[in-house]
Structures are given as structure tokens and as C-alpha cells.
Write a structure and sequence with these properties.
The protein has three domains: about 110 residues, no CATH class; about 80 residues, no CATH class; about 230 residues, 2-enoyl-CoA Hydratase, Chain A, domain 1 (Alpha-Beta Complex), CATH 3.90.226.10. An eight-stranded antiparallel beta sheet has the order 1-8-9-10-4-5-6-7. Strands 13-14-15-16-19-20-24 form a seven-stranded mixed beta sheet, with helices on both faces. The protein is about 25% helix and about 25% strand. It starts with about 25 loop residues before the first strand and ends with a helix. Helix 5 packs parallel to helix 9. It contains nine helices and 24 strands. Strand 8 and strand 9 form a beta hairpin. By secondary structure, it is an alpha+beta fold. The protein is globular.
Length: about 450
């Protein structure tokens, strides 16, 4: 289990909302040190507040905010703040799609006549300026104030008297942290380096993970869960594969079992965020599912265990969903305007390889988040699939990366995901049809196996 610590890393949700249809005339933005001529100019995405200034040498990023416009670099503390756009597709003379990966996303930018005059003209690094920038970014882009029961304007007004240019970094961090805590959104975080240390504010992690952190610790917990699953729960011959992200086996020789810890990270031979990485991740997933679902073809049922799934690459979620359907269906849609139409919607078609469409049970908990929730949201729409366990965390959006002018780093949720029927589960999570306590406080290791055995007992023999 030498690679097990990587399970604790935040999985990259890089290609959330990747377009299901190939776009024509996709071109590489930067090749051999030179940018694509058609992509040069100034481009604005109102959904993200990003301005791309592209000249012959490369891309310069600007943050367009209510408080001002400032330059940033793609060198933040998470992968979302490090990757840069690689592909360009002109939609017309005035708009284009920019993509990180081929077929990735709905990121539409509008061509601008020039960089706005205000960009780079103000020093926004003082505490008061950072406060106004931070709060303005949320007011413009955060998508779930109403669903999370937060009156942002009132919260900001109450916090503003605490802010002055005389305050130190620790005091400013405390104010900004206090503002995001009521959101209870694990896809919103603030990361800052000061006083010789890195500080992180992130809330809404549910009950299980804080309980584990305050108790036995996450690493012993994960090791205990994996060891118990492999040795006590599954039949001989179970496999821990996919760079330690996946467990595959059978129970009582009649039920197939797949546990997936992250939606991606199945390989470690490619640089994350590259097209080669994306292709290798999906190829590794295909190989694992081909083998598992071929083995499970004649079994009574399959358990897809996402109870410890931390999210990841959204293309993986759609690939998994395609393995558990015999007909096309509307998987989910994404928008950024709560009152607007979807930016994109995904149609899931059956995979042309091994599939399983018998009784399928998706096991979830409050650890299940992001891409794990998207997978659950899609699969539970199929008539042969039942969600079991406890309610998921309720954090779906791909984090929007917004570096702050003082060098701190912010991510926030700016997207609204809905299932094929238009139902939204942000903040409330996906409630199971059959409730089983997966990680009970008195024994969060043995409790998982007990929940799986209780589920097995409900599945009739064919």
C-alpha cells in the first residue's frame, strides 16, 4: 500500500462539464513556443471572471472583479490553479471555446476590443482592497447562497467594520474565513501563506471526516477499511488495483463488488492535466471495468461502493455511468446562472463493451462528494439502480480558481448541477433509498463491513 497516502490528495475535477460532442476545428493554442494567430487578442469569460490576454508568446491571465482588475499567474497551490488552456475553437468572429483537454468544457469567451483600461491600474493588495475583492468575487460568482441559506450582503456588511489596512495577515484571514464558514461548502476554500506557514479555511466536510480526524486519524482509518475489505469482506482473489484507487472482488461468489476511492488517479505515468493523462486515465478505467463486468456478468447483483469517494475527473463519472445502462439517458446538466438555462447537458449512451444492467446498488456516505456525487446522481436515475447508505455531502460544482491580489488563493463553487429531470441536490445531497449507517462513530472501520453485509442480506439469490 505504498501509494495509499495519495488517496488523501484532493482529486482534480479538471474536465467537469466536458462537451459530449467533438468540436470542429479545434486547434492548439500554444505550439513550439508560439501562439495560434486566431487565438490572439483579449478574451473575457463572464462566467468565471477570467480575462485571457494572448499575444505571440503566450497567455496572460487577469481577474475581472467588482473591486478591480488584476493580473495573476497559473502557479497556485492546487491543480485547478496551475493548468492552462491548450485548445481553441472559434464559434464565430466574436466568441470561442477554450479547453484544457480535447472535448473539455463549456468555457466560452467573448472577444474584447482591448484589455479594459482599469486592468493593472490599482494596487489591490491592502487588507481592505483584498476584503472588497474577495467579497465581490463571491457576490458575482458564487452559485448557492440561497440553497445554503446565507445572506451574503448581510454577512459582508457585518464583517466590514472588522477590516482595516492596519490589520495583519492573521486577522484578515480570520475575517475571510469567518465569512465562508456559514456556507458549509467543501468546494469553497481559502489558502494563504503567512507567518512562515500555510493556512487553509475549508468547511462543510460532513460529520464523518471531522470525526475521523479527531479520533483514530484518516490514514489508520483508510488502511483499516482497505485491509478489512480485502481480507474479511471479499472472496479470495479480490484485487486492489488502479494505483490503489479501486478494489474489485466478489461477495459469497454471487455479488460483484467495486469500490472506487477517486474518479481518476488510476495511473502515475503521465503529467496530470495533459491530454495524454486524460487518455491514460480513461484507458485504465476501461481496462478495469472490462475485466470486472465480464466477471460479474452472471452474478446476482453488483455493489458499486462510493462511500469513500473524494471526487475527481468528471469524464470518469460518465464513463462509469455508461457501463450500467442499456439505453441512452439524460445524465446531468450544468449552469452558472441560477435562473438561466444549462450551459451544457450530458447524454449518456451505453458503452459498447461489457456492461451490467442487473440489480445494482450504489453505496454512499457524507464522504461521497463531487464527481462521486455526480456518478450517484446519474446512476440512481436508472430503474435497476438503488442508492444505499447515508446522504452524500451535497457539493457538486467544479471549484472556480480565483487567485487574490495579495497572493492568497480562493476556490469557490460557481456551477449548478442538475440531474436529467432538472432536480438540484447542491447543499442537501443525495438521499439514499435504503438507509444504512456506513461509518458509525463507535466503529467506523467495522461499521463499513457491517453495512455491506446488511446490504448483501437484502439481495435475493437468483
Amino acid at each position: 500500500m505504498s501509494r495509499l497516502p495519495a488517496l488523501l490528495a484532493t482529486a482534480l475535477c479538471l474536465a467537469a462539464c466536458a462537451s459530449p460532442d467533438p468540436l470542429p476545428e479545434r486547434q492548439v493554442v500554444l505550439n513550439a513556443g508560439e501562439t495560434l494567430a486566431a487565438a490572439r487578442g483579449v478574451w473575457l469569460s463572464e462566467e468565471s471572471g477570467w480575462i485571457l490576454e494572448i499575444d505571440g508568446d503566450g497567455i496572460t491571465r487577469w481577474q475581472d472583479t467588482p473591486a478591480g482588475c488584476y493580473r495573476t499567474t497559473q502557479d497556485g497551490p492546487t491543480l485547478m490553479s496551475q493548468v492552462e488552456y491548450r485548445y481553441f475553437t472559434a464559434m464565430n468572429d466574436q466568441s470561442a471555446r477554450f479547453e484544457y483537454l480535447p472535448g473539455d468544457g463549456h468555457a466560452v469567451f467573448a472577444r474584447q476590443p482591448a484589455l479594459p483600461d482599469e486592468c493593472g491600474t490599482e494596487d489591490l493588495t491592502s487588507p481592505t482592497a483584498v476584503f472588497e475583492t474577495f467579497t465581490g468575487i463571491f457576490a458575482r460568482h458564487y452559485a448557492a447562497f440561497e440553497r445554503r441559506g446565507v445572506d451574503w450582503e448581510a454577512e459582508v456588511a457585518a464583517a466590514r467594520p472588522r477590516v482595516s489596512d492596519a490589520m495583519d495577515d492573521a486577522a484578515l484571514f480570520a475575517v475571510l474565513s469567518d465569512l465562508i464558514e456559514p456556507l458549509g461548502d467543501s468546494h469553497t476554500k481559502l489558502i494563504a501563506d503567512f507567518d512562515g506557514a500555510r493556512h487553509r479555511a475549508q468547511f462543510g466536510l460532513g460529520e464523518t471526516l471531522p470525526m475521523i480526524a479527531d479520533g483514530m486519524g484518516e490514514m489508520p482509518w483508510l488502511i483499516g477499511l482497505i485491509d478489512q475489505t480485502m481480507t474479511d469482506l471479499l472472496d479470495p482473489g479480490a484485487r486492489h488495483i488502479g494505483n490503489d484507487r479501486v478494489i474489485v472482488g466478489t461477495i459469497d461468489q454471487r455479488i460483484g463488488y467495486i469500490q472506487i476511492f477517486t474518479m481518476g488517479g488510476f495511473i502515475d505515468t503521465e503529467t496530470p492535466g495533459t491530454p495524454e493523462w486524460a487518455a491514460a486515465e480513461l484507458a485504465a478505467l476501461d481496462a478495469m471495468l472490462d475485466e470486472a463486468l465480464t466477471e460479474f456478468a452472471d452474478l446476482d447483483a453488483v455493489i458499486l461502493d462510493l462511500s469513500n469517494n473524494r471526487g475527481g475527473y468528471d469524464a470518469v463519472t460518465r464513463a462509469i455511468a455508461s457501463r450500467f445502462t442499456d439505453a441512452g439517458f439524460d445524465g446531468y446538466s450544468v449552469r452558472t446562472d441560477p435562473d438561466g438555462p444549462p450551459l451544457i447537458a450530458y447524454r449518456i449512451e451505453p458503452h459498447d463493451g461489457p456492461r451490467y444492467t442487473g440489480p445494482t446498488h450504489v453505496l454512499t456516505s457524507d464522504v461521497t462528494v463531487s464527481a462521486g456525487e455526480i456518478t450517484t446522481m446519474m446512476l440512481r436515475q436508472r430503474p435497476h439502480v438503488t442508492q444505499v447508505g447515508t446522504t452524500t455531502r451535497g457539493a457538486f460544482s467544479t471549484p472556480l480558481a480565483k487567485p487574490l491580489p495579495n497572493g492568497w488563493y480562493l476556490e469557490l463553487a460557481n456551477e449548478i448541477f442538475a440531474d436529467g429531470n432538472g432536480e438540484i441536490y447542491e447543499a442537501r445531497g443525495l438521499e439514499p433509498e435504503i438507509r444504512l449507517d456506513v461509518f458509525p462513530a463507535d466503529d467506523p472501520v467495522a461499521g463499513h463491513a457491517a453495512a455491506v453485509r446488511a446490504l448483501v442480506a437484502r439481495i435475493p439469490e437468483e
